[in-house]
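Write out this protein's structure.
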Amino acid sequence: MKFIHTADWHLGNTMHDIERSEETGAFLDWLKKEIEAVGAQALVIAGDVFDVVNPSNVAKTQYYKFLASLLKTGCSNVVVVGGNHDSGALLDAPAEVLAALNIKVVGSINNRSVDDLVVELKDAQENVIGICCAVPFMRDLELEQFYRFSEKSGESQDGAESEKATGEELLKRLYADVYKRAVEMRGERDIPIIATGHLYASNLSGRNEEGRNEENVGSETGNVPEKSDDDGVREVVGTLGNVSVDSFPGELDYVALGHIHYASMVAKNPKVRYSGSPFVMGFDEANCKHCVLAVDVQPSGMPSVQKLEVPRTLRFEQFKGDLKTLKQKLRDLEKELVANLKDDVIRTYVDLLLTSGEFVNLNDALEADEIGKHFVVKRHRISHDILRKNSVGIDDGIESTQQFNEKDYFKMLIAANAAEGEGPEMVQQKYDKFINLFNEAVSKAHEV
């Protein structure tokens, strides 16, 4: 059985207020062509279809139009599960209508049974070619309620046992239960069984520090690259935030995961994978290749997995260094873009981080040199090290892992917006003035 594994579309995302509907539209057009080119019989979307629980009409229109467009292809099955960014209720609302088109949607496990999570996959001639255990993102409480609901329905007799189980134990039990049901459904047919999930698994392959995808980095220690606050990944709360590969039955022929935004294997297991997001979700991913996975899976065998790199329709660059280095990188980028003006140049957005040297107001420094007319500097920041040493007055010997309080962060904010020549003393004066005004306002409020 051939299928496409993808996840984390985050339709409607506007990273740093960048309009991305044209980019997502281009991806969906490309994906349809790739589905046809590889002869995929199914499409599996492993969560985070949308970026927010209440997506825009544009995002919803793109989603439904794309699903409808697949009816004209050889892809006769679609499986969609909810992620932690999705509204399960929103995804589930048209589920019955979409089911008539061989589109299985499981936005959440609320009020569902094990049977509801297992679906046969069929080819164009209605022959069953595989079975999918469609498991969405779940919180610990939803798992507990799922088994209480199942027990009330007479599907389970070990209620006391489930009440004592941890979230990870319940998750392992759920995957065992859906796999057992899939085996019963398969019978004597020689067809593969796959599953989905949207969670954070431990012992991932990672990315090296330049941001390139690498299959083996971090796999020996179980570490993963440090999560940026710019990558769109919300922390998974509860025990589902650190799931081991043992939670998935080893007999499954493939597990299609979502939540992590780069392609990765879990515990070096080629059958348990993240496809990653097809889009750059943070400037720290600027140099990463994004892809979808074309999977050819056979029962009781290792899957053949091909990474299909997604073409970029927006360009993102992240530059770090002192002021001289940043200016030179921007000049080089400008020269490159000007040299390629005759080509179909894509929109380019830049993130700057001043990591060394003296404190300066980056905005003023760049405007003075009039750097860059063919790209947009979307964000410029100053490292905490520079702010500590030059503006806030915190001891230079404190390491970068220092935990700041609210006062420190407010001083940093004042320093980051200081005019040229305003040193630590002026920053402190502005801070003191604001605090005095704030205290006066609070006193007057109490008097009223």
